[in-house]
Every structure is written in C-alpha cells, then in structure tokens.
UniProtKB/TrEMBL annotation:
Residues 642-700 form the PASTA domain. The chain crosses the membrane at residues 7-27. PANTHER family: PEPTIDOGLYCAN D,D-TRANSPEPTIDASE (PTHR30627), PEPTIDOGLYCAN D,D-TRANSPEPTIDASE FTSI (PTHR30627:SF1). SUPFAM superfamilies: beta-lactamase/transpeptidase-like, Penicillin binding protein dimerisation domain, Penicillin-binding protein 2x (pbp-2x), c-terminal domain. InterPro entries: Beta-lactam/transpept, Beta-lactam/transpept-like, PASTA_dom, PBP_dimer, PBP_dimer_sf, PCN-bd_Tpept. One of its GO terms (cellular component) is plasma membrane. Pfam families: PASTA, PBP_dimer, Transpeptidase. This is Cell division protein. One of its GO terms (molecular function) is carboxypeptidase activity. It comes from Pedobacter psychrophilus. GO terms for biological process: cell division; cell wall organization. Its main location: membrane. It is found in: Membrane. Keywords: Carboxypeptidase, Cell cycle, Cell division, Hydrolase, Membrane, Protease, Transmembrane, Transmembrane helix.
Amino acid sequence: MNIRTNILLRVYAAFGLIILFAVAVLVKMAHVQLVQGDKYRAMADSLSTKYANVEAARGNIYSIDGSLLATSVPEYDIRMDLLAGAIEDDEVFYSKVDSLASSLSNYFKDKSESEYSRALRNARKDKERYFLVKRNITYQELKALKTFPIFNLGRYKGGMIAVQENKRILPFRDLAYRTIGYYNANSKAAVGLEGAYGDYINGETGKRLVQRIAGGVWMPVNDDAEIAPKDGADVISTIDVNMQDLAQNALKKQLIKSAADFGCVIVMEVKTGEIKAISNFTKVGEDDYKETFNYAIAQSAEPGSTFKLASYLVAIEDGKFGLNDMMDTQGGTFKVYNHTIRDHENEGVIPMKVAFERSSNVAIVKEIYSHYKDNPDAFTSKLKDLQLGEKLGLQIPGEGTPLIKTPKSKSWSGLTLPQMAYGYELKITPMQLLTLYNAVANDGKMIAPLFVHEIRRLGNTVELFKARVIKEKICSDKTLSLLKEMLEGVVTEGTAKEIASPIYKIAGKTGTAQVADGANGYKGNRKYQASFSGYFPADNPKYSMIVVVHNPTKGSYYAASVAGPVFREIADVVIGSDLELDNNHKLPQLVGNTKLPSVKQGYKKSSQSVYKSFGIKTLLASVNENEIGIDTNNGIAYKEVKMNKGLVPNVSGMGLKDALFVLGNSGLKPIVKGQGEVVTQSLAAGTPIYKGTRILIELE
C-alpha cells in the first residue's frame, strides 16, 4: 500500500466517524425532543421563575364632607394545585373531592355538584397545578371557601390558591361620574380625578416570585409578595355629595322635561373656587340620560347672551357708556354688513341697564360697533386681558380650548366685532364663563376652579390645594358695582323674573343662543342652547353657578324657562341647608291647615334631633301606626326602625342611602330602580335571608 492510499483511507475513516457522530447527535436530539420532550419541558418549567408585579391598592377618592366616592375592594380568583402535598395521595383526594364539589355547588349555586366534581377530577387527571375554580369572589366568600373540604387543609396541603386583584367601585354609582373618572393602564387613557392624580392614587407596585408551570402558566410560589406593594394616597375632592345629588337630579329632570340633547351644571364656591357640584348628562334614549362626556369643562362653544357681561365690562371700564345712557334699539333690528341682528321684542329707546336686563342684542351691538369698529383690537385685547382666551389650567384633563378672535385672525371679517358683542364668533366652555361670573361675585378677583382640596396618605396631609389667583382684579370697583347692579336687575326686572326668590337675592344673566346644525350651519334646523349663569345670595355671594341645556325640543327654548328653573331649584336647597349663610330672612307666613313635614323612615334618635331643631315634638308611635310618621295635632308620631338578624328588614319609606346601608348590613345585595324614597321591596320584611340574596327596591 503506497503512501497516497494510506492517507486517503485515514481521511475516509475520519470523515466517516464525523458523519457517524453527527447522525448520533441528530438521533439523540430527536429522542430528547420527541420521546423525552414532555419530561424535560416540565423540568424546565419547574426551574423557571421570575418576579412579577403586584398591583397596589389604589387610593380612595372622597368628597369634601368625607363621603367615599371611589375605592378599591379586593376580589379573588380561586385556583387549585391538584398535586398539592396532602392530596397528592389519590385516596385522600378522591375521598374528599365530592364533598368539596358539594360545598362549592351549594355555596355558589352556579353549577351542579356533579359538574364541579367532574371538573376537579379531570383537572386531577391532567395534573393541573393552577386550575381555575372560581373568578371574582369577595373576601367574605374567600373566608367561607377556606372552610370547605380539602381547602381547609391550607395552601400547601389543600392546594387552594387565592389570586387577589383590586376592583374599583363607586359607592354612589353615577354621582359625579365623569369628574371622578377613571385611568386605563392599558390604553393610558386618563379621565377625571382618577387619571389626573394617578401618580398619587396608584401607589407603588410590589414584587412576587412566580414559577412557570406546564402550559406556560405562572403560579405564585408563596402566598405573600416578596416586596409588598405600597397603597396609593387618598384624594379629598371639593365635591359636596348632597349638592352633587341635588344638581344631578335637578338637571336630569329638566332635560327629560324639555327633551334636550345634553346639559350641564356647575356649582362653585365664590371665595375658594372649589367646585361643589358638576353634572353632565347626554341623551342616550327616550327619557334616558347618562354621563358620557364632560361638557362643563370640555365643550367649547358660542355662549350667546351670557357673554354680554364681558362686553359690558370692557365698554364700561373704557368709559364708552354708562348704565343710564339711552339707546334706540330701532324697532329691535340693526343691520350691519348685510346681516340683520334682532331682538326678541321691540324695546324702543331704553337705558343700557334695561337693555342688559332685557337682553337686547341690538343695544350692545350698536355700542360696541360704534366705539370699537375703527380699533377692534382695543376690544379684543381687553377680552384677552380678562384671560377669556386662555385655558384655566384645571386639575383634571380635557379642558376645551377657548377662542377669542382678533383682527389678525384668518376668519376675522367686518361682521366679527358686532357678532362677538353678544356672544357669537367666539368659543368658551361653561367652566371658563362661570369663572368670569365668579370673579364679579368675588369683588373682582378671578380664581381658578378647584376640584381637589387635599392629598392624604395614612391620614396625613401630603399636599394641600388653595385658590390660585388668575387675575387679582378684573376691573375697577366702580365698574364692579354697576355689573352687580345689572345682574341683580336681570332677576328682579328683566328676563329672569320668574326665578326670583322672596327669601334671598339672585344675580345672573340668561342666554338663549342659536347653535349651528352641523354642516348646515345656522340655515338648517334651528337649534338653541339655553343657559343661565350667576351667583347667590346676591348681597353676600357664596356660590356661583351655571346651567346649560342644549337643544330643548319640548316646550320653551328660552333660558329663563329652561335653565333658570334648574338654577333656582338648586339655589333654594343650598340656601336652606347651608348653616354658614344668613338664613334669618323673613319667611312667608303659612296659614290654615298647614301639614307637618313628611318624614322618611330612619332611626328614632336621629329623626328626633332633626325635629327638635325645627321645634316639632315627636311622639312614640303605637304598633298599629304608620311606620314612616303620622301627622297629629300634638306632633309627629314616629316608630323606631328595628332590625332582626337573619331576617329581611323593612326599608319602605327610606331614602336610598339609608336603605342601602340597612340592606347591605343585613347581607343582602340590593338592586335599585327609580329615585326618591323606597315604595316597594321584592322580599317581604321578616323573611329569612340567604347569603348573597338579591333584593329589588323601587323608589319614587
């Protein structure tokens, strides 16, 4: 054998060995992947761990009076490790699984005993380590589950795994819904206080060690988080629950009555700028209105005649006219640039004060046009100086952008100045307009609205918010006194006479503005927006308020008949319930068979305290007497509310808050229909209560 042949044989041998080794590797890989794959995948899963985020309990949102507006409650998903220590033995598991299934079926009443048993047995066969038993149970239900067979052996022996999640609830449901808002962590959408103060409310996430098991599911290794989450701080809003409830009911009632498209109302405290109530409703069906959009802060639109306050302010401050200056309204029409501006009625020759009170468009347009047509910038710059063209910088997101045109604006025309004089060709939100009216009530100091009073953590103040001054003085004291005189005159002598009160003074301005009909503009179907903005009591202002009703289609569309009654209804109740106001007004004398006040069912001591404040005697009612109070010649007979444990209570005659409190403490889950006081309940008083039973209460 020559050298060349010897070398070739050695090369072929080496190459053959390499090929053989490669084939062996491929065979082994196939064996591991196909034959032993499940074994090694399970081993890999058992060795895979990581730290997962643990959501912190979000902070609460409170009203200014301490009522809970939004809170987080724990909910639990119940899962089960079917290979846990004590039940790893088949004999132990199969001897108790039917008892567990029976307990689950009897407690939740959603599946039969056999369905639960079959599901648990199948999960056992599949060797599931993280089997879902039940979603979204309460803490009380979790405590009950821990007593069930198998589960009572504990986490590591019985295999029950409780995975906690925090659910956000609103105890007052739709009360100030858009203002409370929400924060969606997935979409990063922020609405209301929930979004604006998310950095405080969200808290700090914790860390929990989790282990990946078969199926790619991550299971907690321990019951407790390795790094505990830090709960969020609490937000104390400026909302007053009673005012909010009052404002919502008054607005919704008027919207239904007038079949309007939408509406809003805002109540602001004059000195502090705190928003005590804010309500927005959109028509979603016949006589059905929901809070779907925050018109009060986001809807920037032409305000109409309520803007005349700004026009008068600028012109009076500039010395262009006085309240006693006479104006010829020319039969209620004034033509400028081929456009005719009209009054509702022919006012003739009237003082400018009367023109404001009767909301003459012609009078203010003629004055503004004659004095500023050669230098319109002098007018618009004063409006800008009032901050009407700037956002307020609210504490919650979504504020609409105002529009105050100037001669440099692309859309400026010869008609713009006269149109602006009475609230057209400009845009402003209800909140921004109310801020101007509030400044007049506040002796000229313009302050930004406040929605949040304080941030607290564990009862300690983290941050305290006070009124932010936008403009120290909007005009001179002399001009202010004239503006206040005009605003009071609107209610006593002008367009809002029908909402005047004999007990206290109201100051404000009506506005009935024609609004554009989409692409058809003002030439399509006529739509109107009725508004009333003002403050009360006028001689010592404490609250300012604006009411806006868009496109009323039933009855009158004029502001005095649509927005005015809402203002008056809210103001009446606020005046009567605010102890800080001077309520020593001369009340109308009631004569004849005046009935004693009707009363809702409640607790005797609380009711007697209220009666005592009004100088009314309370008598102990007999068993046969009406439980909700009886008028007698000597006082009001009243029977104490009694609750018997385990029996359905009688909530007939109660208000909603009291009824929910009583039913909730009895272990019932109430479903509410209507508003007012309870007139019927689906479960008769005195019948036994079964845990989790629902009860329908109807209110009128």
